[in-house]
Amino acid sequence: MADLSGILAKYPRSAECLLDILHEIQDAEPGNYLSEGALTAVAEHVRIPLSRVLSTASFYSMFSLKPRGRHIIRVCESPPCLLAGGERLIAYLKEKLGVEVGGTSEDGSFTLETTACLGACSGAPAVMIDEKVHEGVTEERLGRIIDELRGKDAI
Amino acid sequence: MPSETRIVLENVGRIDPESLEQATSAGAYTALRKVIEEGIPPERVVEEVDRSGLRGRGGAGFPTGKKWSLLAPGDEKYLICNADEGEPGTFKDRLIMEGDPHRLIEGMILAGYAIGAEKGYIYIRGEYTEPIERMERAILAAREAGLLGEGILGSSISFDIEVKRGAGSYVCGEETAMIESIEGKRGYPRLKPPYPGSAGLWGKPTVVNNVETLANVPPIVNRGAAWFRSFGTESSPGTKIFPIFGAVNEPKAVEAEMGTRLSDLIELAGGIRDGSRFKAALIGGAAGAFLGPDGLEIGLDFEGPAERGGVLGSGAILVIDDGSSIPEILHGILRFFKHESCGQCAPCRAGTARTVELSRRILTGVGRESDLDLILELAETMEATSFCPLGQSVILPVRSALTLFPDEFLSCLKEPHAIAYD
Questions:
Q1: Is the ipTM reported for this complex over the cut 0.85?
Q2: Cβ contacts (< 8 Å) between B286 and chain A: which residues?
Q3: Do A116 and B170 touch (CB under 8 A)?
Q4: Does B340 touch chain A (CB under 8 A)?
Q5: pTM
């Protein structure tokens, strides 16, 4: 569970920082999501109705209201990346992780998502894993990264 | 052999972007110092930019000087730098932010000074974690050096910048949706008028400029409007950054004079991929139009593609070879619009969903020939009735694809097609 009061204390009591607050709380939460309790605390802090916080949180694709894996894998699904083999990467990940797009692997390690263009078209296909964008991605490299992250988490 | 002309990207790759010192020795902040030392008044900066003919590099091409001079008077004004760069295939603003962040900061200070704003925001899309971090560090360094904050370099100019991180929404690239997002709301575009110039962020007069537009301001202030006009075309002076990718040998972003021919730009990206033949280019991203082989000689400025019913847009160029299917690429574009439609207005919310259904029907061989007319008619209705440019733009790829490649769509109707990705 994220340290809500510690995060909230850093921000002014104004809706201006709402997106920043939601990002920081979600990043600090191991489940990579915004819980009802977190949204309620945010609403109280910035002094706007919970409905408005929920309205904002539910609009943006990077925010999730449901628990996700420890790591988020986002495959770019814009035409340049699909033409360069992005669809093969999605098929590979579905099999490797045993999930559909939007699903979380059984061990809770990875959530597979797609994303709009990552602005890495000169290095298509691109995949964003957590905060990092990887270019020129192959199935082999994805497999390595996944195994490495699993290994690190196990320690 | 065609060549690049670098104005905006002149220092990218030549300096350590993390070093203010290196940026300064490469010329950063000389335009700002010139304004301070020569006591150039704000209205002279606006005038110079107006005379330069600089037009908005985000895609719409609105004259920057005019936008600045149309700003309503007020005690409190805001400058917003649009770094949402969500147009598929566009990575030009990322290059500026990652490669020369102080160029953008200087452009923002000058723009803020020109319009009378003391606060600027850079709204960067949430997925751009590296540009966000780099801009934040550059802003910190500039502040410590007295280049941002109160009384910049001992002058009476005050200006500061805050980075705002988006959270995954294409429509937030629309200026009023971006303003809503900075205010902490859903990214729903606002009804215009009032335009941001009279009632923008927190209801105050606000200018929203693209990263590449602002990065052109320091050299214009330094070297003058006449110098700037020596590049590009009469109606579109200066250069443009063109991200070129797809079926080319060296996918990359190229900065070239406005009006450079499509064929020359492709040459600059190493030419058509070896062993492939040029079929089409999609210019301007998803909200852009296809050009066929007879479009190779078109000069790319704000007018050139428009003469063929297209747009320059963000300047992104997806080169498509004869091995790729236009109906499939169009399907990907339509799925994108469906995903990114904010749902506020019915024509776009329902229209984007219906275009995907129709496209799927056509591709999988269960469609009828009349579906081709229907998808066009639907996109035309969306152009006429959608609330914001998102729904209005769907017509561009649809009409150009159907006009240029009718046979590909007709053969899909006859032979069921497996959609590789749906």
A1: yes
A2: 78-79
A3: yes
A4: yes
A5: 0.96
